Amino acid sequence: MKVAIITGASRGIGKACALRLAKDGYTVVINYASSDAAAQKVLDEVKALGADGMIYKADVSNLDEVKNMVREVFNTYKQIDLLVNNAGIAKDEYLLMLNKDNLDRSIDINVKGYFYMAQQVGLKMFRKKSGTIINISSVSGSYSIPGQTTYSATKAAVNMFTKTLSKELSPNGIRVVGVAPGFINTEMTEVLPEEKKEEYFKAIPLHRFAETSEVASLVSFLASDEASYITGVTITIDGGLSA
What we know:
The chain is an alpha/beta fold and 243 residues long.
C-alpha cells in the first residue's frame, strides 16, 4: 500500500491527480477547503475505482490545520508516501490595481501552504527515508503574462522552493519535483471569453489547452519508481507555449 495526500483535490488538476493515483493503487487523501459535496464526490469516484481513501477539510495556509491533517493521516495509515502540493489560487490583476487582500491570500496559499505541507509531510517521510513531494507550479513561474504579477511571483517561488528543498531532502531518500502546467481545461479557463481563448490557442504550438488528465499522467510518472532518478527539477507541460 502507498498513501498519497493531494491538496486542493476536490476539482481541477487535484481531482484528476486523485483519480489517476487511485488507478495506480494509491490510498488517496483528498484535501479540500470549501465544498464538502465536491470532495465527497471525488472520494466516491476513487472508491468506485477500487481504491481506498478519505477526505480532509483543511486550509493549507493554516499551520495548525496542516499539522492536524498530517497527524490524522499518519495515525490512520501509518505512512505517507506521496504529497501532491496542488492547492492554489490565481487572482489576476495589474500591479497598479493590486488589492492587498488578494496579494496576502495568494502568498498564504500558493507559498506558505506549500511550505507547511512539505514540512509536515517531510517530517513523516524522513522517518522512513523515502517519499516523493510533487509541487504543482505553473508556466507563469517562468513565462510572463501581463496581469499575473502576483501569481507569477508565487509560482516562481515554488520553482526555487522545489530546487532547494530537493537538495535538503534528496540525500535522505525523499525526491522533490515540480510540474508547471500551462493553460488547462478547468473551471478557471472555462470563463475566458472565446476571443481570448483563440488568442492563447495561436500562441500555443499545439493550438489547444491541455486536459487535467494529461497533467495527472505526468504526476503519476514522476511519483513512480520509473522516475526514481528525477529530483530538483520543474517539468513544464504547456504545449510548447514557453519554448
